[in-house]
Amino acid sequence: MATDVFTPEQRSAVMRRVKGRDTGPERAVRRILRAAGIGYRLGGAGLPGRPDLVMKGRRTAVFVHGCFWHGHDCPRGARAPKANAAYWSAKIDRNRARDAAAAAALEAAGWRVLTVWECGLGDPGFAARLVAAVRDQAAALSTAPSPSA
């Protein structure tokens, strides 16, 4: 087992600096939506999983996930920690289970759930795909389906 390069006090200080709100990826998603004229609320208090962004009128909840913390299948998310591996593996598994339960509860309540992964932010066309995903839902909610659509 690899030992930690930090003392317990230093490790605690490092972990305290890990933010759960207003992260870089979350701010990037907010900038994209704001530039497209799409309004949202922060925090999602009262909703399962407390989504990062909520568009109540569109019944859309957006989660912005860090690849490592939520166990994404990209290279960064699949990277296994060397120190305290059993703890982190269990922690990430719990995060994934919690994410799935929150998404299922929101969908059962009639909400659309969009998950944005940190690694996807740099993809060409990401902003356009995100805006289209949000707007497509709004169109589906605000108009009756037509035979030509």
Topology:
Elements: H1 8-16, H2 24-35, E1 41-42, E2 53-55, E3 60-65, H3 75-78, H4 85-108, E4 112-117, H5 126-142
Parallel strand pairs: 3-4
Antiparallel strand pairs: 1-2, 2-3
Describe this structure as you would to a colleague.
The chain has a four-stranded mixed β-sheet with strand order 1-2-3-4, sandwiched between helices. A hairpin with a 4-residue loop joins strand 2 and strand 3 (60-65). The termini are far apart. The chain is built from five helices and four strands; from the N terminus they run H-H-E-E-E-H-H-E-H. The chain has helices at 8-16, 24-35, 75-78, 85-108, 126-142; strands spanning 41-42, 53-55, 60-65, 112-117. By secondary structure, it is of the alpha+beta class.
Keywords summarizing the entry:
single chain; 149 residues; alpha+beta; 4-stranded mixed beta sheet; 5 helices; globular; disordered C terminus
Summarize this entry quickly:
The protein is an alpha+beta fold and about 150 residues long.
Question: How would a crystallographer describe the biggest sheet?
Answer: 4 strands, mixed
Residue fraction in strands:
5-15%
**What would you call the structural class?**
alpha+beta
Mean of residue pLDDT values: 83
Provide the spatial order of strands within the biggest beta sheet.
1-2-3-4
Q: How far is the N terminus from the C terminus?
A: 58 Å
Total count of helical runs of at least 4 residues: 5
